[in-house]
Calbindin
Amino acid sequence: MAAETHLQGVEISAAQFFEIWNHYDSDGNGYLDGKELLNFIQELQQARKKAGLLAQILPTEENFLLFFRCQQLKSSEDFMQTWRKYDTDHSGYIETEELKSFLKDLLQKANKQIDDSKLTEYTEIMLKMFDSNNDGKLELTEMASLLPVQENFLLQFKSVKMCGKEFNKAFKLYDQDGNGYIDENELDALLKDLCEKNKKDLDINNLATYKKNIMALSDGGKLYRTDLALILSAEQD
């Protein structure tokens, strides 16, 4: 098949790589598991015999996504802090210009300098790969596809998200002093109750990790409604 031919060649473009990825990510959830992962690995093993290293499947200057996923962000907390840095307007998504800044910073950390036209190309590729609803913006859950599955705590919260009305009611309940934001202690109480009500999806033994990851979205320890909604509300404004 065409995907197999592409994988066995070393000099493929980033666009071709993402086309291959999408071929194996058949359910479009942003990561590979089960049979998808097995098939992908089998093709990579064949490619390694010719390329020598996994990273060599892409040209050197186009390894930035591999670098990002394997080296740059090693935990959900790192990811959330990075999201907060680039979602500068607290809109709940990263727009094209914000994404370009995000990628430029990432590439500089990898000691890679590129011109603006190449940066624009990378931005378009990133949107093509992760913009699952095709709105030209990347939401938190879409960007979280960059995280290794075992580090993506957002997958666990996906099944416990509330409708907008229910979320607003919960926020008001746990914002006990009515100051318009939730602090660490109030979040602790909220998460404990969520874990008790959703034992199949959330592990109360991971409470400290959940809290640390979510508080990474806060502004000086203040977790505002729009920020918490990224995690717990199924409806975004």
Observations:
- The radius of gyration is 19 Å.
